[in-house]
């Protein structure tokens, strides 16, 4: 895509500017090679860091082109790559200045931080980025709730901002080349403008325009609740079935934590609804929201919509709370009777969320619904129940349950391991990858 090509081109521009400033010659010269490598790693790290900021700045055309799940994976890859380049930059700078001075690397770095303008801020920014990267490692993320991780992750923006003076005051390639100055000012300006406009300005504007408030909180099953919201001119929000928004319910302490929940019914001009599984303190807080509670929103986001559809026949496959966007698609998608089949997997009959609504839509629209309640098979990951897995292979069960499978568009939503098993089964059953559409919410 064009945006991917532009991202690659930005790294190429950095390499060209470094080359024009004599980088390769310095790299091949004894005595300057280490510092030349330090400058190169620092420049590329800074470029990737800003691309990372742009990837998650909620820029609408990027969201529409890539989807937030793919942008998040790109953001993660860019983040870890830029972090290791930044670490290399710090180490190389220490060695590059320590060797001719005859001092230790740590002593030299401490001296640079104290004596050079902007370096103390850069050190603080680097410390914040190290903490954010540490929290982004999968083992650490599993120990932190999403809401807290998301809030702490925002400190990465402060870390990036603290690095700006260091680049302005000490970056030789930045201050000595007009072309480099124009490039870096443009990139820094675009990144911070995108943050201000799309992460701050647009959500505030949307929330003020639509004035969303809670009208009702309804207990569905087990620990699952639906939140109904009213507001003004909700049709102009342009939300589509299958999309999600980021919600902040102003319910008191902790309201600023963002919650990405899918719409669980087709959006209406006077009503929106999301359905969620309550977990932890935030789940109880959201479930306890009262009528009239103000709601701030970001979005809508996501590409798990009818726009991905290629043909007439559709298979919707959901597991657990992943039913929410697919229930909205079942209601809002255009289709003739018998063109859509929904497979809904849950651990028990009691956990089949929104079943009465789904049955009503199926009767009205002529859709087929296949419920698969039951525990998973022991010893392996499968999209099936234990009973079905004892009788069929994963792909054989699909072929048995759904006629003309290979010609269908398939929309998937559920826990990541379940979706991986479902995708593998679809592939083995002959469904082309281009016809399988999903959105992964793992973080």
UniProtKB/TrEMBL annotation:
Keywords: 2Fe-2S, FAD, Flavoprotein, Iron, Iron-sulfur, Membrane, Metal-binding, Oxidoreductase, Transmembrane, Transmembrane helix
One Pfam family per UniProt: NAD_binding_1
Taxonomy, superkingdom: Bacteria
Cofactor section: FAD
Location in the cell: Membrane
Recorded GO MF terms: 2 iron, 2 sulfur cluster binding; flavin adenine dinucleotide binding; metal ion binding; oxidoreductase activity
TM helices/strands, residue ranges: 32-56, 77-98, 118-137, 149-169, 181-201
Membrane topology: Multi-pass membrane protein
InterPro entries: FAD-bd_FR_type, Fe3_Rdtase_TM_dom, FNR_nucleotide-bd, MRET, OxRdtase_FAD/NAD-bd, Riboflavin_synthase-like_b-brl
Predominant subcellular localization, coarse grouping: membrane
Gene Ontology CC annotations of this record: membrane
All residue ranges annotated as the FAD-binding FR-type domain in the record: 207-307
Stated name of the protein: Oxidoreductase
Taxonomic source organism: Catellatospora bangladeshensis
């Amino acid at each position: 895509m064009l945006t991917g090509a532009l991202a690659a081109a930005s790294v190429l521009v950095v390499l060209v500017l470094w080359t024009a400033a004599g980088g390769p010659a310095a790299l091949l010269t004894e005595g300057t090679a280490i510092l030349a490598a330090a400058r190169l790693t620092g420049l590329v790290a800074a470029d990737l860091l800003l691309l990372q900021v742009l990837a998650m700045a909620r820029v609408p055309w990027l969201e529409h082109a890539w989807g937030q799940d793919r942008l998040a994976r790109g953001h993660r890859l860019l983040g870890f790559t830029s972090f290791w380049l930044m670490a290399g930059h710090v180490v190389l700078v220490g060695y590059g200045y320590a060797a001719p001075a005859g001092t230790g690397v740590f002593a030299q770095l401490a001296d640079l931080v104290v004596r050079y303008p902007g370096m103390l801020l850069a050190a603080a920014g680097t410390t914040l980025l190290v903490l954010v990267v540490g929290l982004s490692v999968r083992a650490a993320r599993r120990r932190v709730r999403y809401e807290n991780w998301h809030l702490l992750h925002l400190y990465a923006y402060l870390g990036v901002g603290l690095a700006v003076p260091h680049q302005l005051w000490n970056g030789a390639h930045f201050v000595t080349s007009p072309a480099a100055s124009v490039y870096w000012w443009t990139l820094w300006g675009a990144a911070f403008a995108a943050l201000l406009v799309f992460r701050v300005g647009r959500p505030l504007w949307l929330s003020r325009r639509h004035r969303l408030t809670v009208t009702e909180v309804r207990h569905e099953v087990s620990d699952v609740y639906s939140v109904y919201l009213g507001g003004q001119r909700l049709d102009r929000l342009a939300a589509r079935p299958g999309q999600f928004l980021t919600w902040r319910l102003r319910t008191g302490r902790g309201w600023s934590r963002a919650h990405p929940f899918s719409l669980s019914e087709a959006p209406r001009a006077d009503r929106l609804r999301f359905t969620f599984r309550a977990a932890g303190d935030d789940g109880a807080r959201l479930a306890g929201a009262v009528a009239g509670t103000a709601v701030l929103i970001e979005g809508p986001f996501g590409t798990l919509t009818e726009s991905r559809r290629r043909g007439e026949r559709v298979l919707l496959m959901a597991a657990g709370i992943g039913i929410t966007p697919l229930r909205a698609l079942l209601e809002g998608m255009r289709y003739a009777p018998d063109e859509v089949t929904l497979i809904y997997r849950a651990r028990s009959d009691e956990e089949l969320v929104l079943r009465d609504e789904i049955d009503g839509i199926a009767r009205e629209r002529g859709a087929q619904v296949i419920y698969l309640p039951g525990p998973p098979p022991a010893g392996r990951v499968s999209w099936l129940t234990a009973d079905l897995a004892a009788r069929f292979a994963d792909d054989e069960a699909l072929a048995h349950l759904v006629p003309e499978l290979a010609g269908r568009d398939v929309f998937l939503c559920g826990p990541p391991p379940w979706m991986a098993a479902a995708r593998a089964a679809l592939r083995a059953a002959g469904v082309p990858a281009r016809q399988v559409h999903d959105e992964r919410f793992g973080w």
